[in-house]
Amino acid sequence: DSLNAKLANAAKKLEDSKITPAINALNAFINAVEAQQGKKITQADAEALITAAQEIILVIESM
Fold first, then answer.
1. Over 3-33, what HEC string results?
2. In the chain, where are the structural domains located?
3. Per the database record, which ranges form the FIMAH domain (predicted)?
4. What's the confidence (pLDDT) of residue 1?
5. What are the φ/ψ torsions at residue 52 (nearest 5 degrees)?
């Protein structure tokens, strides 16, 4: 699944201490969720996923 691949990519980048690429991968995840919002992903689930990804980005940026 594309969303899982994007998250796995972000995790791998973070494990490799590649901060900017990890954030870019999370932003790609957010964009993919937004594209599926109201289609394959409900509005509520999309909002929760986007919020979680944004919070993770904030944590990464503060490292």
1. HHHHHHHHHHHHHCCCHHHHHHHHHHHHHHH
2. 2-61
3. 2-57
4. 81
5. -60, -45
